[in-house]
Structure formats: C-alpha cells, structure tokens
Specification:
Strand content: 5-15%
Helix content: 40-55%
Radius of gyration: 22 Å
Structural class: alpha/beta
Shape: globular
Bound molecules: pyridoxal-5'-phosphate
Largest sheet: 7 strands, mixed
Order of helices and strands: HHHHHEHHHEHEHEHEHEEEHHHEEHEEEH
Number of strands: 13
C-alpha cells in the first residue's frame, strides 16, 4: 500500500490530499502512525499514553457535548468506517441490481475471511448476520428439539434471547431452566459449577453469555462447553459483547454456536453481526429464513434473508482494519484502564457498591455500579440532566445499578466527570 507521502507524490499534492479526504482513509493512516509511536511498548503502558489515545479519539466524529458511557448498546463507527459505509450506499444506488448485487455483494467473502481469521475459525463456519439477535435466534430456533427437551440458561441472559426460548416453550413444549448466580461472583468456577449442576437427563442445550450485558461478567466458556460436549449437550454462546472487546479465539471457547454483534465493540456499521456454527452442526441447523436443500451444508444458507444493503456488511472490512490498527491487546488494556479509573475511585465510597468483579479474568470495559439508597432510575436521570452523561439503568430482580461502558474514544476527563458526578449524588442524594 502507498504511504501518504508516496500517494501525494504520485498524484500531485493538492489532488492527492483531496482524494485522501474523499476516501476518508486518513483514519487508518493516523491509527498506523500512532501505533508506530508506541511500537514495542507493553499494552498496559500504552493504555496510559494519552498522546496515543488522543489520535484514536480524533478518528471519530462525535458530539462531545455529551458523555456517552453507553457503548454497550451500539457504538459510533470511526469516520473511516462510516465514510466507507456511505460510499457503498452511494455506489449501490446507481443501479442496485448491478452495482450492489454484482459488484459489492460478492465482496462479503472478504469480510467473511477476515472475520473468521480474527475469530479463529474456518470461513466456512461463519455467517454474516444483521446483529447478535439474528445470529443467536438462528441457533435457538434452528436446533431440533421436541416437547420435554430442556434448555438450561441463566436469569441474567439477554432478554430477547430468553424471550426466544420462552416462545419455544409455548410453541414446542420444551422446558426452560434459568439459574441464578451472584453478582459479582468470587470465582469463574462458581459460574460453571452452577450451570453444570443444573443439567438433567432431559438437557439438550446450554445457553449462556460469554460476557453479560448487565454487569460485564465473563463466563468460563471452555470449561462449560467441554463438559457439555462430553455429555452430548450443545452450547449456544451469546458473545454479543465479546468480539473485538478482549482477546480470545474460537479454540479458547469450544462451543457449538456463537453469535455476536459487530456494531458494538468492533465499531462496524449498525446492523452487523456474525454467527459461528461449528462445522459438524451446519447441516443439522435449520436456517431462520429457509434456503434451498442444495445449500444444506453451506454456511451461506443462514444469509438467505432476501434483498438487503451490501453497504453494512462490506464496511465491516474497514472496521476490521481500524480494529487491527489498534490491536486487541492495546484496546482491551485501554478499556480496562478507563473502567478501572472510575471503578477503583468509586469503590472507596462506602455508599457505592460495585456489581462487577474487576479481576481481568472476570471483566473488561463494562462495569455496573449502584449508589445504595438512591433508585438507579433517578441516578441515571440526574447524570443526564446535570452532566449530560449517558449511562444505562440496569434493573434485575436480584440487584440494580448503573451500567457504564466507555469506548476507545472516551477521554479521561469524561470518565472523571462521571466519577465526580456519582460521588456528588452519593453525598447529596436525590430528592
Ligand atoms: C448479551 C446480549 N445479547 C444479545 C444482544 C442483542 O444484540 P443485537 O442488538 O446486536 O441484536 C445484546 C444487545 O445489547 C446483548 O447485550
């Protein structure tokens, strides 16, 4: 690839600069240039290097009059990704049947290959979906189960995914068992032990999060999946918040089905996700939107969704480039650094309770915190009204708290403003 200087030289400075701006490629170049300045440094040291992260922060077009600490919902894309997304939309709109279907759509194979390399599976085991819900529902609704078969999950799994199983309870007569677990747990084994202890002779599927959306709890996926496989039970893992958040590969998980969002931590356009199906399960898994019998063993049968934009899934490629430019080790170290900055400070406050175990084995960017004696809904309302901070209220039958999720573009000042705001609310309460 041409360097910026070589590109400008070959195209003429003014024309070259205009072309670069038009292509929006400077984001990737800046990320690469910033990476050169920290080459060889430990990720934990880079995590505290504000001049490096300043470059990353500049790669986004944000509204800095608000402090967005809900990056667990969906995230803004860096400019370079959003520009690509818009460019692909423009190209599609010329003659969609040609430009979108014939030129852009086949390039989904590049996206598949790159995502599979990052996740650590064969591209033939990876379907591109529109979100984690679709990915997981393909697995949840596509596994053959008969009345009386049991699915074991937790009562802290994602609501829509639990609703999906509940629908199978009503429609197919399966049994759904939801276990409870403490927040925060002391050990990961505690989580595995509880899930595995709930298995009965009727259990066919275990469904659980790689990392929960409520408190950011990371599960010991491999231990659970290995034991389930030994007992002939399939594992559906909800990785909506895991991919491109902290480092791991498919071989570290060992599960049968894995669904994730890409509009969360990968920072891809909104409306992107993937489903991993372990090769031996592809043939027997029914697609959500039916496909021809001839596609039975082809992972692409899960992508037979009718006409859809190619821009969303093709711009995943730019998101991958941006992600690789930072590197997952540096990214996760920075996310933990930001989370620890507010969490360690608030943990000192006797009125504040953390629901997240800060041990790196247990969590990364996501934290859940409660001001005891003040309803969480009011806390979240006050954060917004007074400080323009967006955070998410978590209300679970067994606990409540404010979920806080920074991103690579979050500044220390923003995190410190949040911590100070929480201290003020804890001290003064809310009438
Ligand atoms: C744990 C979990 N699973 C699934 C989903 C659904 O993801 P999506 O909105 O991409 O379908 C979410 C979304 O927040 C989630 O947090």
């Amino acid at each position: 690839m041409l360097s910026r200087r070589a590109f400008l030289h070959t195209t003429g400075t003014a024309a070259g600069a205009a072309a670069l701006a038009a292509f929006g490629n400077d984001g990737l170049q800046r990320v690469a240039a910033a990476a050169r300045t920290v080459e060889g440094a430990a990720p934990e040291d880079v995590a505290a290097d504000e001049s490096y992260w300043r470059e990353i922060q500049q790669a986004f077009t944000l509204d800095r009059t608000i402090i967005n600490l809900n990056n667990g919902g969906c995230c803004p894309s860096p400019r370079v990704v959003h520009e690509a997304f818009k460019r692909y939309l423009d190209i599609s709109n010329q003659a969609p049947v040609y430009h979108m279907w014939q030129i852009l759509e086949p390039n989904i194979e590049t996206v598949r290959r790159r995502l599979a390399a990052e996740f650590g599976c064969d591209p033939e085991e990876m379907a591109i979906t529109r979100n984690a819900s679709e990915a997981l529902q393909i697995a949840q609704l596509g596994i053959d189960l008969k009345a009386g078969d049991e699915v074991v999950t937790t009562n802290q799994d994602y609501g829509r995914m639990l609703d999906t199983w509940e629908q199978r309870v009503r429609r197919d007569g399966i049994k759904l068992t939801k276990i409870s677990f403490p927040v925060p747990p002391r050990t990961q084994d505690e989580l595995a032990d509880r899930l595995l202890a709930a298995i009965t002779p009727a259990t066919r599927v275990l469904h659980f999060c790689h990392i929960t959306n409520l408190t950011g709890q990371i599960f010991p996926v491999k231990r659970i999946a290995d034991e389930a496989r030994r007992r002939g039970i399939k594992t559906v893992v909800d990785g909506a918040h895991a991919f491109a958040h902290f480092p791991y590969k498919a071989s570290d998980l060992g599960c049968d089905y894995y669904g994730t969002s890409l509009h969360k931590w990968l920072l891809a356009p909104i409306g992107t996700g993937f489903l991993y199906v372990r090769r031996e399960n592809i043939e027997s898994l029914w697609p959500l939107t039916p496909a021809a019998e001839s596609r039975k063993g082809n992972i692409r049968k899960f992508e037979e969704i009718g006409t859809h934009p190619a821009a969303n899934h093709n711009a995943i490629a730019e998101a991958m480039s941006f992600h690789e430019g930072i590197g997952i080790e540096r990214k996760s170290a920075r996310l933990r650094y930001l989370r620890n900055r507010w969490a360690n400070r608030l943990a000192q406050n006797p009125r504040i309770k953390l629901h997240t175990n800060l041990d790196p084995k247990h969590s990364c960017a996501i934290g859940c915190v409660q001001i005891t004696g003040v309803p969480t809904g009011k806390v979240v309302g006050r954060l917004w009204e007074r400080w323009r901070i967006i955070a998410t209220p978590i209300g679970h039958a067994e606990y409540e708290g404010v979920r806080v999720t920074p991103n690579v573009y979050t500044t220390l000042e923003e995190v410190d403003t949040f911590a100070a705001a929480m201290e003020e609310i804890a001290a003064k309460g809310i009438d």
